[in-house]
Amino acid sequence: MNNRKRTALCLLGAALCVFMTFGAALALGRYPITPAALLAGDAMAVRTFTVLRLPRAVMALIGGFGLGAAGFVYQTVFRNPLASPDIIGVSSGASVGAAFAILFVSSGALSTTVCAFAGGLAAVFLSLGLAAAAPGRSKMSLVLAGIAGVYPASEVAVGEVVAVAEERVEGLPERYADAYRPTFAVPGLRTAVSNSVARSGAAPAGAEVENMEGAAFFAVAAALGVPAAEVRAVSNRVGEPFGVWRVADACEALARELALLVGEIGSVSSLD
Q1: Domain residues of the chain, as ranges?
Q2: Which of 17, 204, 215, 238 has its CA 20 to 30 A from that of 37?
Q3: DSSP per residue over the chain, as a string?
């Protein structure tokens, strides 16, 4: 089952659950209401349905939809599937605003709603302002580390660790770039141009090493707006059988360079 069919089934199931819950909220209770009673014009049934249950069910549906939309917006903006209005104090700010309205302005619905909205909005700006002004705040960066093969015409040796200066790729749809570059430099390493092997098997001119996932890594990092760099240890020459690859040696060299890199990043952070 592909993702579209799975998504369609999930949406259909969710809609069915909402429909059944909405119907139960209208029909069930201390005084059960049936369609026959409404059609017969039963005064008690009509009054209970139109005055009490229908407005309550509609407002519950609208409120649930609003909460779901708010959660979706938060998770999209903060790129965090666990984000909620509680994280940056929106709920608490809205509570303070509502309490202020009841105590000092008016207990009416309009004033309470407006002050609650203003309090939640103020909490958002206060949290973002404090986060922006905090000294020594860190920014996440991603480093892709792995092994690679070296093309015969390249001067890069097997066992050497290089920092990718450009990741090229061919044979992908037009919405993707044909080359990606790191957004920050990896100090102390020789640079090389890498090729992400696509289905076409094409190797862009000038590529020195090849891998399989470098372009996808940079495409995702660019879409998320996260700084990214790539480090590769050469384990083999392109075209060699897997049995002669020096994977263990490449991984050992890569681990040493990554340890040095982490130490340099830590020393720079402490100086900042």
Answers
A1: 1-83, 85-137, 142-271
A2: 17
A3: --HHHHHHHHHHHHHHHHHHHHHHHHH-SSS---HHHHHTT-HHHHHIIIIIIHHHHHHHHHHHHHHHHHHHHHHHHTT-TT--TTTTTHHHHHHHHHHHIIIII--SHHHHHHHHHHHHHHHHHHHHHHHHH-TT-----EEEEEEEEE-TT--PPTT-EEEEEEEEE-SS-TTS-SEE--SS--TTSEEEEEEE--TT----TT--EEESSHHHHHHHHHHHT--EEEEEEEEEETT--GGG--HHHHHHHHHHHHHHHHHHHHHHHHH-
